């Protein structure tokens, strides 16, 4: 049975109800061609909406431990870069960091999952643009939510939900001091778009450029 995410049930209900009403009203026209077109369009819209908000179960990788960073999203790895920190207060100034960016197509599962077990120490929503999410500048220019996690060993991971050209609503159900566990659901970006994960460059990277990953299952890196 297809499971629908709690973060999208309101949209699914509105689309299904609106589609049923419009199809019912089209019956009043008496035109078989018109009824067929309307019914086909809104049936396909309903199917796509159900498909988009699907929420399959996921299983943690074998030998999982608290040093693993998991993918927070389904999609394709479009960026793996090292850089020296100058923008993020969550990390030490000049600390050497790695950023991994995952782009979600409309066909991917869009439920986001916690990448790292620990305690939420930083949550910030930032208004911004809605440019194409696969561009590097979208990480700093687009509307986004930034979330930082500490674990008991003092290791840190920052991740971002980044809205794109189509995406207009970021859902994040996290608050500072929340205890979180890798692989658990925390939100989604409705009809978009990109997740960034930032962590120490000392970590052992487990993915490659252009690799497809799954939220809560694919290992992005292991912290040393």
**Percentage of residues assigned to helices:** 10-25%
Gross morphology is: elongated
Tell me, rounded to a whole number, the average pLDDT.
Answer: 90
Structural class given helices, strands, pairing?
alpha+beta
CATH C-level class of the largest domain: Mainly Beta
Number of strands: 14
| Structural Rg | 20 Å
CATH architecture group name of the largest domain: Distorted Sandwich
Largest sheet: 8 strands, antiparallel
The domain count comes to 2
Question: What is the third-level CATH name, the topology of the largest domain?
Answer: Glucose Permease (Domain IIA)
Low-confidence stretches are none
Q: Work out the strand percent.
A: 25-35%
Spell the H/E element sequence: HHEEEEEHEEEEEEEEE
User: Could you give the order of strands across the largest sheet?
Assistant: 9-5-6-7-11-3-2-13
Helix count?
A: 3
N-to-C span:
40 Å
Which helices and strands appear, and what pairs or packs with what?
Blueprint: H1 9-26, H2 32-52, E1 68-70, E2 75-84, E3 96-103, E4 111-113, E5 118-126, H3 138-141, E6 144-150, E7 156-162, E8 169-172, E9 179-180, E10 185-190, E11 194-200, E12 204-205, E13 212-213, E14 219-222
Antiparallel strand pairs: 1-14, 2-3, 2-13, 3-11, 4-10, 5-6, 5-9, 6-7, 7-11, 8-10, 12-14
Question: Could you explain how this protein is built, in words?
Answer:
The relative contact order is 0.21. α1 runs antiparallel to α2. By secondary structure, the protein is α+β, with helices and mostly antiparallel strands. It has three helices and 14 strands. The strands form three sheets. An eight-stranded antiparallel beta sheet has the order 9-5-6-7-11-3-2-13. The protein has a three-stranded antiparallel beta sheet with strand order 1-14-12, with no helix packed on it. The longest helix has 21 residues. It has two domains: 44 residues; 155 residues, Glucose Permease (Domain IIA), CATH 2.70.70. Helix content is 19%, strand content 33%. It is elongated and about 70 Å long.
